[in-house]
Write a structure and sequence with these properties.
The chain is mostly beta strands. It has helices spanning 17-23, 45-55, 113-116, and strands at residues 5-10, 26-33, 36-44, 61-65, 68-80, 85-93, 100-109, 120-123, 127-132, 141-144, 153-155, 166-167, 174-179. Strands 1-3-2-6-5-4 form a 6-stranded mixed barrel. A 4-stranded mixed β-sheet has the order 10-7-9-12, with no helix packed on it. Strand 4 (61-65) and strand 5 (68-80) form a beta hairpin.
């Protein structure tokens, strides 16, 4: 399996350089790893945004730094939610013969029978923590919900993960469930037929 390549440039590590990078629409980043001297790098923001949209944040990446290319994982993406922009990215250089811990997105597939019957889908867990060699990492874990009926629940134990990956999450943690529809009338208390509404008595005497 070929892994996506992301090209970056070496940058000056001074904080004063960040303003210049912003003007040039570049995102400051750092790459580090076991036995690897950390390097300050920069990435074109548009290219990075497109890359993350296509490959996500959990995939193994081949990072190209100058004339060197090596596998990395994204450890952290710092975002500015107000400006809808990326402020900084941390990359971790991995060894292909050492296991790594990572999160794989959980993807629901199929149309649940319970939803067709009016049930409500509750997707409670969207990622699963795994451990594997970099070459065996999963881009996602698919969950077939087509047979789920109202009241059914799938847990981490039900996830279809190959034997090259070790699941780190609690096996009993709920991933997805189909809930019975709630009627709005349940929360509305209506008086029984023929029952008169209660009146609040006036404490003041008549004619006062």
């Amino acid at each position: 399996m070929e892994h996506p390549v992301l090209t970056v440039a070496i940058r000056n590590a001074k904080k004063s350089e960040n303003k210049r990078l912003k003007r040039e629409n570049k995102v400051p980043a750092v790459v580090y790893g076991k036995g690897y001297e950390a390097k300050s790098i920069a990435i074109d923001e548009r290219e990075l945004t497109k890359f993350l949209k296509t490959h996500g944040e959990s995939s193994l990446i081949n990072l190209q730094v100058a004339d060197d290319t090596f596998p990395v994982l994204i450890k952290e993406v710092q975002r500015n939610t107000l400006k809808n922009s990326i402020d900084h990215v941390d990359f971790f250089k991995v060894s292909m013969d050492e296991e790594v811990e990572y999160n794989a997105p959980i993807v629901l597939v199929g149309d649940a029978e319970g939803i067709k019957m009016g049930g409500i889908l509750q997707h409670q867990k969207r990622e699963v923590a795994l451990k594997a060699l970099p070459a065996d990492m999963l881009e996602s874990v698919e969950v077939d919900i087509s047979e789920m009926k109202i009241g059914d629940t799938l847990t981490v134990a039900d996830l279809n993960v190959d034997d090259k990956n070790t699941v780190l999450d609690d096996a009993n943690e709920v991933v997805v469930s189909i809930l019975a529809p709630k009627l709005a009338e349940e929360d509305i208390e209506t008086p029984e037929e023929g029952e008169e509404p209660e009146l609040v008595e006036n404490d003041q005497e008549e004619g006062e």
